[in-house]
Amino acid sequence: MAKPVVPEERRRRRRPTRGGTVLSERLIVETALRMLREHGSAGLTARRLGLALDADPSTLYRYFRGMDDLTLAIGDALVGQALDGWRPTGRWREDLRAVGLRIHAAYVAHPQAALLTTSRVTGRANELAADEAVLDVLRSAGFPLADTVTVYHAFIDQTLAFAALDAASLALPSAALRADEEMWRSTYARLPEETHPRIAEAAPLLARLMVTSAYPTALEMLLDSAAARLDAASG
Amino acid sequence: MAKPVVPEERRRRRRPTRGGTVLSERLIVETALRMLREHGSAGLTARRLGLALDADPSTLYRYFRGMDDLTLAIGDALVGQALDGWRPTGRWREDLRAVGLRIHAAYVAHPQAALLTTSRVTGRANELAADEAVLDVLRSAGFPLADTVTVYHAFIDQTLAFAALDAASLALPSAALRADEEMWRSTYARLPEETHPRIAEAAPLLARLMVTSAYPTALEMLLDSAAARLDAASG
DNA sequence: GACGTAAGGTCAATGGCGTTGGCATAAGAG
DNA sequence: CTCTTATGCCAACGCCATTGACCTTACGTC
């Protein structure tokens, strides 16, 4: 039966599958991440994962309550590696920039996985540590408490939002991706000046810029505004 | 057979279903939107939609190439109503704020639909019109072309990113939503000062703020930075 | 070292899904 | 009034997640 899932730390008997593979939460999550990368976010199915692990699909239910539970485990793994090894420098603007870019990068590095997990909230240790770190950077920089909370809220949600958005476009199936890019060339670049003058004049610049992430720019603009706010508060 | 989908404007024979309903793209999309609202983003299935329309599921394939095509049509409908009725005032900051809040609001008003469509790029008429409008606001305000494109990119992607993020949390099944809120109260509000001093001191403010969208704040910060940039360029 | 227990594997079945090919029928052109 | 064909219905296919029953082997105990 599937109900009583044994937590990883209490597992004792590691019976190999018929093919000789020895399973573990870690192995399953890593295999799932690889499958997501190779087959896209819809390519992760219990059957296929079982096949890749050389195990019956139903075996997965010994480790996770269902595919949704597995999804959360994958998200947890992503969050874990985002801030792994980061240390604050004491320069607030540099530190915030680093944290933002790291979280963004961790998600974008696994777009298909990010697609499944960005909207889920875990509230686990890694998330708490990141929040505490960001708040500490702001307070240590001299932001008053109210401003700290406001800037923190905008900062963290902006980071997650862009991570999700950029992951989504990276995770598009290659056919749809090609179609989108083609649309950029065929539609935007050729709009007549009479009906869309602003797009027409900006088309070359747009074509170069729109294929990159706007997150670094948006982040810098947010930091600009925060710096101005800090000046106003302390001077 | 399903292949040759007749475009809406060339339809002539409106044969009613067995139950008497007369189908149309519009009716199907509206019904789908209603089902999304009522049954969540996973509750939209061809079979259920057929049931709601009093038609065989396969009939849908006379109107859309598949469920994915229907998804795009839903997204197009959302974009359409976002800027419906908006007129620029000539004050750039006010205009950008209005466009951003309108697009954000349109998606958030249909969270489950937004969940399915925010990551898709249509390149259709409504999207083009919005882009042209934003570019025009910036150029008319006096932004140089390069700055215009940079600010436009950050503005539009930030708007879509926050729309997706906020829609995602609104679209959570109510059980998960309740669990998340409970987590906020039970975890963040009670973290010991020794291990998480910054979260502890900010907890009351956080609890009040985190349940709202950070988009208005982030938008205002982006406009702050853009205004400073405009000053620097023109003075 | 033998043994009993239950963790952790397999197998088979259920009900739901998107999608398609074949067929029936009625709307509208002539 | 007749003919064409757009548009509806039906039945079936091959996926999917999940579950209950069963089997087997790793390990703690003696």
Automatic annotation (TrEMBL), chains A, B:
InterPro entries: Homeodomain-like_sf (IPR009057), HTH_TetR (IPR001647), Repressor_TetR_C (IPR004111), Tet_transcr_reg_TetR-rel_C_sf (IPR036271). Pfam families: TetR_C_1, TetR_N. The keyword Metal-binding does not apply. Transmembrane segments: none annotated. One of its GO terms (molecular function) is DNA binding. Residues 22-82 form the HTH tetR-type domain. Residues 45-64 bind DNA. Keywords: DNA-binding, Transcription, Transcription regulation. It comes from Streptomyces doudnae. It comes from the Bacteria. This is TetR/AcrR family transcriptional regulator. The keyword DNA-binding applies.
